[in-house]
## 1
Amino acid sequence: MMPNKSRPDFTGVWEVNLERSILRGSVPKRILMKIEHQEPRLIQQILFTNADSVEQRMTFTYETNGETTNAVGEATARTRARWEGRELVIESRMNTSGREVHFKDHWSLSDDGQTLTMAHRDDDLAGQISILEKSSQLGRTSFD
């Protein structure tokens, strides 16, 4: 029997299941994420491929015990990550186009550790739910 960890470890390579997800905005061709999680630090690398096969790479760093800042294009996001039970809540605010944007992402891991759900319940992306499946390989795509 596996020990019951109080907090999940999100480390791994994940791919968004576009059919199972509810995304705001234009639907991409593919979204891959590589997450390195060593409590209290979490590094999230995203490889976003749009419908025209144009790739965009982003990297975000979070600390579950404080505030971090991350560049998002020309803007800077101020982010706080905190645990609410077994769920990680990542809350970010940034000013873009003259207005403040608010994101509050709720991360949860399935009991078998193979499905990561990222849900926006009460923010500027409310209703968006990304269902990510753990990948054992990257295929032709590299995060390096």
Note: Residues 77 and 94 are 5 Å apart (CA to CA).
## 2
Amino acid sequence: MTRRRFLIVCMQYPVEPGQSYMTTELAEALEGGGHEVEVLVLDWHAPPGRPPSRTVTPAGIAVTRCFPRQIGWAGGVLRAASKFVLSGRHVARVAARTLDLARFDAMLAWMPAAAIAPLVDLAVRAGIRHRLLFIWDFFPDHHREIGRIPAGLPYRAARAWEQRLLARFDAILCTLPGNAAYLRARYRLRADQRVLVTPIWAETTPRPAVDRDAVRARHGLPRDRPIAVFGGQIVEGRGFDLMLDAAALAAAAGSPLLFLFVGDGRQALALRARAAGRGNIICLPAMPRAAYLDLLGACDVGMVATVPGVTSFSIPSKTIDYLRAGLPVIAAVESGSDFAAIVQAHAIGCVVPFGQPWRFQDEATRLATDPRLRDGARAAAQRCLDAFFDVRHAVAAIERAITD
């Protein structure tokens, strides 16, 4: 493959020692494949207003970090809209001032493109030949379906904006075949736009075994109970109602299973309030990644759940961490989900229909307490990681997309 110069534009790119994310994995894999990579980060969840910064990672990748802008006094939809508009303008100004955009062969970005709209137009004018858009969640459709964006004018305006920007990319990469079909059915594409499929990715090396008793003691967890864990952002669209209902049913059935939730987010206070006083639910805040991965190694089954009424499918990224820790996966997902087919085809856990918390708790208990099932899932986990979730698949898809 010809050496290319890539500009990666994203909203998360940790540079602290021991921290990683899918964007860091991709950048380093592209560098390792002989390409040149530079990263422009719009740090969406950071406090707004800070000046840009620039650093070079130990892997030799230059990272320019911008911070969001928004109207401080506004609220609701106006505040959210101002963040998109003002942050997008800000990141484009920083790029124009500090980066020689014309030297890049390709730009990689993620939906929502509306968050970087002026930069997308700037890339077109600068002559960046290959512009690739990754879609993990369909904006704004998914956000309306889980209650993040109200229906009506705000949704229609965001939809029209995203549709216009979609046309500025010459290749679009979806995580599942079903989502490629969703894209073609719900969005207007040019005849020459390429649509490719590549799963999400992350580091796939297995985690070393941990001292389960010591890790549990460190976090105040009982030594003698099986634990079903959810780790990630405590936000809309994660199926917490179903998991909490399953916990209540497990308690009523006398199941020893403990339900553990690890993370922070907009719904964290509500989740902790609902869990208060329930003896089989524990909530822990977000923690450094190494500590979190060790904690997974002291648990017994990883939980995944979606919400009803969502018309596109996704691969929950937390699944990769569960598999690296050797945990079987219990998933409650939409009917017909490609992710359900992955779990079943690779024998890494069990899938139940969404809306059946009694089956969720029953299968979670079984996976957590049956040594034969756990050993089988542990053996299958690494095979699944290598065959499906390795970052080399994403690199190969990108290289196909920019082949002249």
Note: The chain has a mean pLDDT of 88.
## 3
Amino acid sequence: MSDACSNPDHLPEEAWIVALLSLPGLGPSRLRLLLEAHGARGAWDRLCRGDRVTVESVRPHTLEGWRSAARLLSVRRHWETISGLGVSVAAHGSLHYPTRLNEDIEPPRVLFSIGGEVPSGPTVGIVGTRNCTSYGQRCAFELGAALASVGVCVVSGLALGIDAAAHRGALSILFGKAKVERTVAAGRPIGVVGSGLDVVYPKRNADLWEAVSNHGVLLSETPPGIGPQAWRFPARNRIIAGLSDALIVIESHERGGSLLTVDEAQLRDVPVGAVPGPITSNAAAGSNRLLVDGATPILDVGDVCALIGYAPPRSISSVTDPSRQSELLDVLGWTPLSFDQLCGRVDLSNAEVAIEVERLVSEGLCARSGPWIERVR
């Protein structure tokens, strides 16, 4: 028997699950069937020996591909590689697996994470279109900041548009620019992504990935090294819904992908709210329809807290440190700069610059035009 199938006894269950996920064409659904039928190590041993495994609707050539790949892969070395990336791995039901997902109707069998464990406090999912308007972007940023300021963790998918704006708002509180003494720990952002945690997608959000991993937690059921695939994004929506005490939609087109997350929330009896948008806006057609169909109207953070039955302590001020805001505005002057140019002229990290720019845009002090950031007043 090859070294790949020698089965060292000291490896944790997660090592065998991660090894199974490395096999060609073996995704979350097939993983669940294998684990339910044979367990993680049992399934691997059967594949290595060429024994029969119980997985419905798997063609013989696919199964033979698994067996061939299993015989070539050293589980020990593969596990050491994953561990060396700084990615934590938790199997369903294990000590470090998120409590909220343990009893979910369709829990991920394994979760990869960077940045610590999922917080135990109140959580709210914020989702919406990637092609949002400036109105939607501002609503998402301000609601994300307001929720974080009262100790609520914002859950989203780190996509462009609404997702990113909500998380940037939450991070603006965590970067410590409040001018009053805090009376409650700020809510940490939770990002649920559809690719491996070492494959940033979209690349434009690289600074946001870094900030969320440093100040909150990044989660994925996709193993490291695997890039984005279309089917993985609807699959990750159930995790966003499962982690949330309520789901808030800010701008969704009539058939927007955010509505898939709403479906997952409703399957789990997670209450759904929506921020009203202009009735003439295509970007808000889906979210406005949710309101017609009975979703809770969300006008401010108080509406969200009422929806989840949370009585927040005294709100943290979100007033920006005037010295830092002035620094960015002074650097910008009245000549448009690219993001890279702006970062090169201030003593701040790229993530901090991105958060401050988002705030300045939301407050109407700056605007974006293509790659350029410019001061408008």
Note: The domain at 322-375 is CATH 1.10.10.10 (Arc Repressor Mutant, subunit A).
## 4
Amino acid sequence: MSANKGKDTLPELKLRKALYRKGLRYYKNYPGLVGHPDIFFKKAKICVFVDGDFWHGHFFDKQKDQIKTHRSYWIPKIQNNILRDQKETLELESLGYTVIRVWEDEIKKDLPRITDIIYQQVINSINPYKD
């Protein structure tokens, strides 16, 4: 487990590079907010989290049946991660931030679409009257 990275994972790096190529500048792993967003656009008040499929429970209902060893550890661990993510999202939204959660799987399958969604959200938040 110690070999699993908490920051600068491959999906994060891919997304950050794609956003940078579009001209967006951001903070990474911003410590001033709950959850330490992976990518943070301060002026736009947008927090982006890149969630690993296993660790954050993407398709968890199907996934938990595939966990064969240490089920008593992994199932509650992932369930707690899911609840923590939900609480962090609600807390950030209550503070006026927009929260975008992106699955590792989505970045692998359709990075250009994800990048465009984030780009548009940032541009519209900074200048809401732009055509």
Note: The mean pLDDT is 89.
